[in-house]
């Protein structure tokens, strides 16, 4: 395998994922309707859709926080949904998540060093005397001053907290990080610095991202490919832009060209000249 083929190694394949929720008045609501997503090593796949389109449901299924009704997830070729017990626990290390508001997931009584090292501690992979050094190493990775280790989450800004969330996610050296609206609550300028950080970490480690957001322009700055989700279904694959099929896809495309963005990665504007 040459280098390029190697970097295109498929690590995740979600196939025909379906998930429904019971409706209050009876019947069921299909939140994920035969969703297919493939992710390669070192790549960023965007999943973009308006609120309620089923993005977080898909993330929760991948994280095994909730069960799919049907479908298959292959992670490094292994059937993720069939794993149980210790096998599942080990695979969980490899897929980490960062959230819109990481602080909500942080214990406010713990110092940042404990928060960052908690996942490693939970796996019994770090002894108490090594927590401080490891936390500082991770703080350097996310460009935060090392003395942040001594602080509590509520003394940090939103952007700093998100960096701590990234450090905490990276500490287990995952293959995939699922970013569910991870920058959506931040100011645009802070958003950009977090995106730059995520890109640098990807270059350095080869981690793959599933980047979930409702903002196509933002996803376009960051992602190698984008899937557009609507009412539980993937309705567009942006690699296939010449064949935008839905009004929704067209509307989203219009909205991105009305914003000043700088470097665009996925879209080739000449297609629309
Ligand atoms: P998104 O992340 O794209 O905003 P979600 O996956 O959170 O979308 O939700 C998709 C749809 O499923 C929404 O209509 C939401 O109300 C519904 N939904 C999500 N979670 C539940 C649940 N636990 N019970 C019932 N309905 C849910
Ligand atoms: Mg969501």
What is the H/E string?
HEEEHEEHEHHHHEHEHEEH
Question: Sheet bearing the most strands, described?
Answer: 6 strands, mixed
For the secondary structure, the number of strands is 10
In what order do the strands lie side by side in the largest sheet? 6-7-8-3-9-10
Structural Rg:
19 Å
Please, what is the average pLDDT? Answer: 88
- Cα(first) to Cα(last) distance is 38 Å
Strand-pairing-aware structural class:
alpha/beta
Task: Note the overall shape.
Answer: globular
Q: Oligomeric state of the chains? A: single chain
Share of β-strand residues: 15-25%
CATH class of the largest domain: Alpha Beta
> What share of the residues lie within helices?
25-40%
Under CATH, the topology of the largest domain can be stated as Rossmann fold
Explain how this protein is built:
- The protein has 273 residues and is an alpha/beta fold.
- It folds into 2 domains: 180 residues, Rossmann fold (3-Layer(aba) Sandwich); 79 residues, no CATH class.
- Helices cover 36% and strands 24% of the residues.
- The protein has a 6-stranded mixed β-sheet, with helices on both faces.
- A hairpin with a 5-residue loop joins strand 1 and strand 2.
- Helix 5 packs across helix 6 and helix 6 packs across helix 7.
- The C terminus is likely disordered.
- Bound molecules: adenosine-5'-diphosphate and magnesium ion (MG).
Topology:
Layout: H1 3-7, E1 10-22, E2 28-40, E3 44-48, H2 55-62, E4 70-75, E5 78-79, H3 85-94, E6 95-98, H4 102-105, H5 112-122, H6 131-141, H7 158-170, E7 176-180, H8 188-205, E8 208-213, H9 216-222, E9 225-230, E10 233-237, H10 247-257
Parallel strand pairs: 3-8, 3-9, 6-7, 7-8
Antiparallel strand pairs: 1-2, 1-4, 4-5, 9-10
Helix pairs in contact: 5-6, 5-7, 6-7, 7-8
Bound molecules: adenosine-5'-diphosphate (ADP) and magnesium ion.
Adenosine-5'-diphosphate (ADP) is lined by residues 21, 31, 49, 51-57.
């Amino acid at each position: 395998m040459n280098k390029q083929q190697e970097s295109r190694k498929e690590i995740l394949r979600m196939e025909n994922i379906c998930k429904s929720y019971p409706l209050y008045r009876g019947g069921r609501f299909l939140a994920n309707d035969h969703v297919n997503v493939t992710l390669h090593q070192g790549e960023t796949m965007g999943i973009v859709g308006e609120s309620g389109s089923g993005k977080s449901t898909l993330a929760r299924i991948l994280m095994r926080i909730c069960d799919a009704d049907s479908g298959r997830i292959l992670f490094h070729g292994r059937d993720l949904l069939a794993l149980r017990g210790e096998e599942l626990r080990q695979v969980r290390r490899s897929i980490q998540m960062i959230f819109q508001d990481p602080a909500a997931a942080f214990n406010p009584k713990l110092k940042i060093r404990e928060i960052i090292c908690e996942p490693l501690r939970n796996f019994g992979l770090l002894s108490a005397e090594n927590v401080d050094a490891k936390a500082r190493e991770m703080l350097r990775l996310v460009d935060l001053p090392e003395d942040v280790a001594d602080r509590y989450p509520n003394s940090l800004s939103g952007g700093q907290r998100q960096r701590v969330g990234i450090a905490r996610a990276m500490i287990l050296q995952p293959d995939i990080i699922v970013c569910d609206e991870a920058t959506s609550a931040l100011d645009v300028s802070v958003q950009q610095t977090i995106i730059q950080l995520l890109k640098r970490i990807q270059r350095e480690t080869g981690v793959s991202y599933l980047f979930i957001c409702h903002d196509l322009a933002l996803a376009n700055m960051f992602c190698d490919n984008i899937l557009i989700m609507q009412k539980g279904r993937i309705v567009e694959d942006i690699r296939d832009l010449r064949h935008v099929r839905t009004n929704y896809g067209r509307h989203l495309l219009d909205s991105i060209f009305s914003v000043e963005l700088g470097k665009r990665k996925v879209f080739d504007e000449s297609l629309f000249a």
